[in-house]
Amino acid sequence: MKQSRELRFSAERTLGKLAKWLRILGFDTSFEPETDGQPYIEPGRIQLTRIRDRKKDKLPEKRIFITSDHYIEQLRQVLQSLKIEPLELCPFSRCIRCNHLIEMADKTDVLGKVPDFIWETHDVFHICRRCNKIYWPGSHTKRSLDNIQRLFDD
Ligand SMILES: [Zn+2]
């Protein structure tokens, strides 16, 4: 089996949906890293860009030029160019909104913070301790899993 590696990404402003999906897959992904129109390249992150020709390119191997307009194809491109395998994913482990790792939450702790019918029909909740967003398994998760499966279909 492949040695485990930590893949971290930095997505350009135009790649918001790709960034969100990389977070759904469990990858540490920063987003909107531009300041004053200049790309901010965070050390140790693989830069995802739609701009092919950038001068002063010091770390060409740390960048992936995204060709497709569609996020599933974009994801596919990232997974294929880094030869990422399904076992390297850790879906639903990270906050989609702020990129922080999420934790299990006690059902009693989320009472009043999620809709009543959700609280009554679910027993497993996760919470982001940074932005307080609460997650629970639902139809969105099912759809997400289907999408993830599609990524590895030929
Ligand atoms: Zn969060």
Question: What is the topological layout?
Answer:
Blueprint: E1 8-11, H1 16-24, E2 28-31, E3 46-49, E4 63-65, H2 71-81, E5 102-105, H3 116-121, E6 125-128, E7 134-135, H4 139-151
Parallel strand pairs: 1-2, 1-3, 3-4
Antiparallel strand pairs: 5-6, 6-7
Helix pairs in contact: 1-2
The protein binds zinc ion.
The site of zinc ion has 8 residues, from loops.
Key features?
7 strands; 25% helix; 154 residues; single chain; 3-stranded antiparallel sheet; alpha/beta; 2 domains; binds zinc ion
Notes on the protein architecture:
By secondary structure, the chain is an alpha/beta fold. It folds into two domains: 8-88; 102-138, no CATH class. The protein has helices at 16-24, 71-81, 116-121, 139-151, and strands at 8-11, 28-31, 46-49, 63-65, 102-105, 125-128, 134-135. A hairpin with a 5-residue loop joins strand 6 and strand 7 (134-135). Helix 1 packs across helix 2 (71-81). The longest helix is centred in the last third of the chain and has 13 residues, at 139-151. Residues 95, 97-98, 100, 128, 130-131, 133 line the site of zinc ion.
Question: How do you describe this structure in short?
Answer:
The chain is α/β, with parallel strands linked by helices and 154 residues long. The chain has helices spanning 16-24, 71-81, 116-121, 139-151, and strands at 8-11, 28-31, 46-49, 63-65, 102-105, 125-128, 134-135.
